[in-house]
Write a structure and sequence with these properties.
It contains six helices and six strands, in the order ββαβαβαααβαβ. The chain has about 150 residues and is α/β, with parallel strands linked by helices. Strand 3, helix 2 and strand 4 form a beta-alpha-beta unit.
């Protein structure tokens, strides 16, 4: 685990499923006491069966963890395509943040409501927190509720 931000509000985790199995992901969430896994992918699809929305929801349900899909907090196809084309993660993050500050307000509000009452982990693909749009979502959430952010590695 890596502490990303120390706030005075609730603790929010982020996790990527890259290189994990469904069982490994659930074990990591249980180890830190996550109540709700919030999937911040635009589409809850994966080439790996464990991480498709329905399968992930079933893993969570069996472990007593709520699964919430919030596709409106995901990166757009256009932004992802530009990242794949350029490879410039810093540029992608800046563009995603601009997008999120306009288009993700309602989703962030719903996320803040959940995160103030339950222990939440934000999920996307990339293992490294700093290389994923969920880091921007987490930062924006922390601004809203003064959350501490911790990346599960």
């Amino acid at each position: 685990m890596r502490e990303v931000r120390d706030g005075n509000g609730p603790r929010v985790f982020t996790i990527g499923y890259e290189g994990r199995t469904g069982e490994n992901l659930i074990a990591a969430l249980q180890e830190v006491g996550v109540d709700v896994l919030v999937d911040v992918r635009q589409r809850a699809m994966s080439r790996r069966a464990d991480f498709r929305g329905k399968a992930l929801a079933a893993f969570c349900d069996a472990a007593g963890i709520d699964y919430v899909g919030m596709p409106d907090l995901g990166s757009t196809d256009e932004l992802r395509d530009a990242l794949h084309e350029s490879g410039d993660i810093a540029k992608f993050m800046k563009k995603f943040e601009r997008h999120a500050r306009k288009a993700c307000v309602d989703g962030l509000e719903r996320l803040a409501q959940i995160a103030t009452t339950k222990t939440v982990a934000l999920l996307c693909y990339e293992r490294c927190h700093d290389e994923c749009h969920r880091s921007v979502v987490a930062q924006m959430l922390s601004e809203e509720i003064d959350a501490s952010i911790c990346a599960i590695i």
